[in-house]
Amino acid sequence: MQRMLRQILTSKVYEAAIETPLEEATALSAQLHNRILLKREDLQPVFSFKLRGAYNKIAHLSATEKAKGVIAASAGNHAQGVAFSALKLGLKALIVMPATTPEIKVCAVKALKAEVVLHGDSYSEAAAHCTKLAGLNGMTYIHPFDDELVIAGQGTVADEIMRQSAGKLDAVFVPVGGGGLIAGMACYLKALDPHIKVIGVEPYDSDAMYHSLKAGYPVELDAVGIFADGVAVKKVGQFTFDLCLKYVDEIIRVSTDEICGAIKSVYQATRSIVEPAGALGMAGINQYVRERKPEGQTLVAINSGANMNFERLRYIAERTLTGEQRESLFAVTIPEKPGSLRHLCSEVLEETNITEFSYRLSTREEAHIFVGVSLGGSIARTAFTERLQQQGYASTDLTDNELAKTHLRYMIGGRSPEALREKLYRFWFPERPGALTRFLADMGANWNISLFQYRTIGGDFGRVLIGLEIPAEDEAKFAHFLKALGYRYEEATSDPAYHLFL
User: Fold this and answer.
1) What's the CA gap between 189 and 4, in Å, rounded?
2) How far is it, in rounded angstroms, from Cα 210 to Cα 184?
3) By CB count within 10 A, which of 2, 54, 423, 482 is most buried?
4) How high is the pLDDT of residue 80?
5) CA gyration radius for the chain?
6) Is 110 a known active-site residue?
7) Are the beta carbons of 384 and 353 closer than 8 angstroms?
8) What are phi and psi of 102, to 5 degrees?
9) Cβ atoms within 10 A of the Cβ of 319, count?
10) pLDDT of residue 459
11) Helix/strand/coil (H, E, C) string of 433-495?
12) What rounded mean pLDDT belongs to the chain?
């Protein structure tokens, strides 16, 4: 501990990195009944804390080592740290990155004049190739986490937090991949105040440190998830493991949905968007407060990075609702007859805010509906299931079903040979609580609904796609009905996409 403290306090990180602010998230603090502080490592020149450790290691190299250049393997953030440091010191840099690395990180490394080699699907595969290349070209290998000088560089985050908070902390939540950040921070924090809890946070599908601490030795995972690519490490370092075993209090594991919810929490607090790995600290706080219910404590989340492809935001936004426990998903079976949808909404969903509603005519006996509702937590979901059962509806809770959330919700539909004289319409109606139920009530039971799809998009107007079986003799009556309904609409029966897929 003493050697590590000395290395942290004498590190050279500030030749390249900045001291990032420790900001209070006022709204989050009020919501969670604890003082929530965010350590903004996403504001570093490379948008990640990794610059600290990389520069500290490279700056300490001998002249001979510097002349040979540096090589590193990384999922992205360490790569940028090494490339930035090498550029600043005038050194040659070669970076081996997994082929799955987000494009934004690959482009950022190339912009820093480093050579990039893409290899493998995970950090471990890239690291093995990097070691092979280092042996061939003689370049100095800069390990992303299992190196004393790298760990010391990351430990300067804790030094700043203690000064910025005057040491008045209860717990610090740290993202964990290979363990470099939490090892350095834990060593420093426990040396200054052993009462501060140091809590690591890992995704369930990349939880190498959790299993290693449980087993008592570094465990290698068979595979890792790549959603939080910044912590997708199959095996933690031996040195980082030893420090974590001594100084880390516990590891919390979180789901993909919880990470997405944390990204939103950070956005609402800072108006900045962190990457999935960067949101792990906040995800840990959310789970910690929800399950253990502390009050009046000062909790710090490390916003460790903000390098994320913009295109991923669509997926994150979808999963945020379930991650915050504000949306639950169900499959509901109803009899196939006119008025069934209206009956379901009026008898079961009348007081429930609907977020998604998908239905396609299948047979003339029964139909299956995919519905999202604003319910929070398992107790509310159980109560909703019981309400459905009391009304005679069979249902399945799909809230925790990965297949349903990732694929099924986008595949519901298809052609139906049972749909006769079907007309397709798009509707826009004012988005307010109960709006969808009132919309279905206005539609009445005069014509059979053969297709129905609704998904809230967070705007002022809800959008519905609806298919109706209109008998020839009712066409004039239906046209009058549409005019009297008062909603903006347009017919889509001739749309080529409808004919191709529905």
Assistant:
1) 12
2) 17
3) 54
4) 93
5) 27
6) no
7) no
8) -55, 140
9) 22
10) 58
11) CCHHHHHHHHHCCCCEEEEEEEECCCCCEEEEEEEEECCHHHHHHHHHHHHHHCCEEEECCCC
12) 89
Closest CA to 127 of 119, 136, 137, 139: 119
Nearest to residue 147, comparing CAs of 248, 78, 216?
A: 78
pLDDT of 165-211, one tens digit each? 998 999 999 999 999 999 999 999 999 999 999 999 999 999 999 99
Q: Pick the catalytic residue: 12, 39, 50, 105?
A: 50
* Residue 77, C-beta contacts closer than 8 angstroms, at least 6 positions apart: 46, 47, 48, 49, 50, 105, 230, 277, 304, 305, 307
Predicted pLDDT of residue 433: 62
Residues 209-234, mean pLDDT to the nearest whole number: 91
Distances (CA, A) of 314 to 272, 317, 318: 16, 5, 6
Confidence at 46, pLDDT banded by 50, 70, 90: very high
Q: Look at the pTM and tell me if it is higher than 0.85.
A: no
Confidence bin at 95 (pLDDT 50/70/90)? very high
Known active-site residue 122? no
Domains (range + CATH), the chain: 2-48+148-307 (3.40.50.1100), 51-141 (3.40.50.1100), 325-501 (3.40.1020.10)
Q: Identity (one letter) of the amino acid at 10?
A: T
Catalytic choice (85, 122, 304, 328): 304
